[in-house]
Specification:
The protein is of the alpha+beta class and 593 residues long. It folds into 3 domains: 283 residues, Bira Bifunctional Protein, Domain 2 (BirA Bifunctional Protein, domain 2), CATH 3.30.930; 137 residues, YbaK/aminoacyl-tRNA synthetase-associated domain (YbaK protein, Alpha-Beta Complex), CATH 3.90.960; 110 residues, Anticodon-binding domain (Rossmann fold), CATH 3.40.50.800. It is built from 15 helices and 31 strands. The strands form 8 sheets. Strands 3, 7, 8, 9, 10, 11, 12, 21 and 24 form a 9-stranded mixed beta sheet that branches. Strand 5 and strand 6 form a beta hairpin. Helix 2 crosses helix 11 and helix 6 runs antiparallel to helix 15. The chain is globular and about 90 Å long. It binds one RNA strand of 77 nucleotides through strand 21, helix 13 and helix 14.
Length: 593
RNA sequence: CGGGGUGUAGCUCAGCUUGGUAGAGCGCUUGGUUCGGGACCAAGAGGUCGUAGGUUCGAAUCCUGUCACCCCGACCA
């Protein structure tokens, strides 16, 4: 490909509204342009990278036994009404009417379509299991699109759905997909971690996220490692179990009530009373399926809504508004576990849920359920008596906590969620009456799994993880081109040689971006660094007079530049490219064991 | 949805407070000099100042509505 013919409008200046590195670089290097909030045009360079990611996904999924199909982006409302998500999904579901006034949606996901298809076309257990996937543009009307392609409204996604006769077979496929995902992200050259995750509104009860490790990631994850540094457990913080600390403190002073005028926050109370925030009980009021709940933890921690929801077996958890709290007889800012207001005709009693990190502590401070008053010297077992079924792991995990699974100390990292695997069970098949006839002649709902990969987001995550001040440093398997061939002049000798090298490399299946523009070398180096192809071959100028060309990896410094005799250039470049590609394949083989 | 902010040339922005007929740098076109890490000189092209209305002799500037976009929060397979 000739650079002079390529539409890759690079920018010297950074567009004002790009906050994260991947967004900035994709704009500056001429990969994408914004059309509307969260909606982007993918220019040729981006398209090439997306195609590569998609093809790696295809190869690995086909190899794992899945089949590709394509479902409609536009879906009739009836399907969504059947599954119940027409009401549940909310404003993120983009709805519209056709000319006849019928309701439609633009698919944010395809559980309904695939379930309807399989329901109609698959009748017998003999046709199962089945795993079907597509790679397609999705639309989710995000509340707040941001970070360019990382969190757009329109994006390309691979979604797969599997159908099984029973749980055991579905779990087998889950493991199969887990391995395929591990291979896919390894082959993309990414450093990632599979973590246990919440299933959210999609339902199901087993789920892993694949998180690309990057400090700019939106997700917080924690993990434990063994002596060799190999991860032994990893989870999203919203799910990661925190082991209960073993405290057994003896009370030294009697409990009393003190004035704390207008001191509402943990910081204010702690500073006013001269105690560390970790000694102040934090009380957060929730509306749990319509009932008030007071969740308590130590002041240096945060109550985790996902855990609270799970522990209480609730459908819906949200923060209680101040007015609602007052209506229930509570004093926001001064709530505490002692003498909670009793149930009255106007409101039910307030239920108490306490984090197990509080157990066994003494000398605590907590709200006294009276304006401008707190209890001090509160001691577990003496003043604070909590029934076992009100005590649970309720806080968000953080570095330094002990893991609830293996008791090792958690380390923390940030991640970008690029893939997610779910065990769905029969949620959709039951709702949509999708059944097959089993060996026992009875009708059974399919047991389902679903598996997603954000194709566009994977590319953005790769940039977040692989860049420097000069631009992108693509992992070779997903770079738009393998080689940037830079002609350092446009004289005949240089151009003839460059053309010859281009042809020879392409003959070996190597993708070359030949910068044939009549530009100064500095401009070409800058643009090609920005674009980020993994190998650079520079031809012409000083080195040509010495009878050599220059070869450098994008990840190397100028000092590491190789001077290669012209007749060895093709061999050297090809060996470098093939070496980089082979490394990624080997990583996939190693990782998938 | 709550809070904050911004819309002026393809991009980054100045001009707005205090109304007087539109600016800079980068990019683009042409010519010349250059030529190994985003060159220099000269000459050009390019803007209904988001949009609708109002105030005024006169509006990019003041007022009102509206739309779009960005940031923080809430939200989120």
């Amino acid at each position: 490909m000739r650079y002079s013919k390529l539409l890759a409008p690079t920018l010297k200046e950074t567009p004002a509204d790009a906050v994260v590195v991947s967004h900035r670089l994709m704009l500056r290097a001429g990969y994408v342009r914004k059309l509307s909030a969260g909606i982007y045009t993918y220019l040729p360079l981006a398209q090439r990278t997306f195609t590569k990611v998609a093809n790696i996904i295809r190869e690995e999924l086909n190899r794992a036994g899945a089949q590709e199909l394509t479902m409609p982006a536009v879906q009739p409302a009836e399907l969504w009404q059947e599954s119940g998500r027409w009401e549940q999904y909310g404003a993120e579901l983009l709805r519209f009417k056709d000319r006849k006034g019928n309701d439609f949606v633009i698919g944010p996901t395809h559980e309904e379509v695939i379930t309807a298809l399989v329901r109609d076309e698959v009748k017998s257990y003999k046709q199962l299991p089945l795993n079907l996937y597509q790679i397609q543009t999705k639309f989710r009307d995000e509340v707040r699109p941001r970070f360019g392609i990382m969190r757009g409204r329109e994006f390309v996604m691979k979604d797969a759905y599997s159908f099984h006769v029973d749980d055991a077979d579905a779990h087998k496929e889950y493991d199969n997909m887990f391995r395929a995902y591990t291979r896919i992200f390894s082959r993309c050259g990414l450093r990632f971690r599979a973590v246990e995750a919440d299933t959210g509104s999609i339902g199901g009860n087993r789920s892993h996220e694949f998180q690309v490790l990057a400090d700019s990631g939106e997700d917080a994850i924690v993990f434990t490692v063994d002596a060799a540094g190999k991860p032994t457990y990893a989870a999203n913080v919203e799910l990661a179990p925190v082991a209960a600390a073993e405290h057994n403190e003896k009370p030294e002073l009697p409990c009393s009530v003190v004035d704390t005028p207008k001191k509402k926050t943990i910081e204010e109370v702690a500073a006013f009373l001269g105690v560390p925030p970790a000694r102040v009980l934090k009380g957060v009021l929730f509306d749990v399926d319509g009932k008030p709940v007071l969740a308590m933890c130590l002041g240096d921690r945060d109550i985790n809504e996902v855990k609270l929801k799970k522990v209480l077996g609730a459908k819906d958890v949200r923060l209680l508004l101040d007015e609602e709290a007052k209506a229930a007889g509570l004093k926001p800012g001064f709530v505490g576990p002692l003498n909670l207001p009793a149930a009255q005709a106007s409101h039910p009693s307030v239920m108490l849920a306490v984090d197990h990190g509080v157990k066994g502590l003494a000398g605590l401070v907590c709200g006294a359920n009276a304006w401008d008053k707190h209890h001090v010297q509160v001691a577990w077992g003496r003043d604070l008596i909590v029934a076992d079924d009100c005590l649970a792991d309720l806080t968000t995990a953080k570095a330094g906590d002990r893991c609830g699974k293996n008791s090792d100390v958690y380390q923390a990292a940030r991640g970008i969620e690029v893939g997610h695997v779910f065990f769905l069970g029969t949620k959709y098949s039951t709702a949509m009456k999708a059944t097959f006839q089993g060996e026992d002649k009875a009708e059974h709902p399919y047991v389902m799994g679903c598996y997603g990969i954000g194709v566009t987001r994977t590319a953005a995550a790769a940039i977040e993880q692989n860049h420097d001040d000069d631009g992108i440093r693509w992992p070779a398997p997903i770079a738009p081109f393998h080689v940037s061939l830079v002609a350092l002049g446009v004289d005949k000798e240089t151009m003839d040689l460059a053309e010859k090298l281009e042809g020879a490399l392409e003959g070996l299946g190597i993708e070359v971006l030949f910068d044939d523009r009549d530009e100064r070398p500095g401009v070409k180096f800058k643009d090609n660094d920005l674009i980020g192809n993994p190998v650079r071959l520079a031809v012409g100028g000083k080195s040509l007079k010495e009878g050599v060309v220059e070869v450098k990896l994008r990840s190397e410094t100028k000092e590491q530049l190789r001077k290669v005799p012209i007749n060895e250039a093709v061999h050297v470049v090809a060996a470098l490219v093939n070496g980089l590609l082979a490394d990624a394949r080997k990583a996939a083989d190693d990782a998938a064991v």
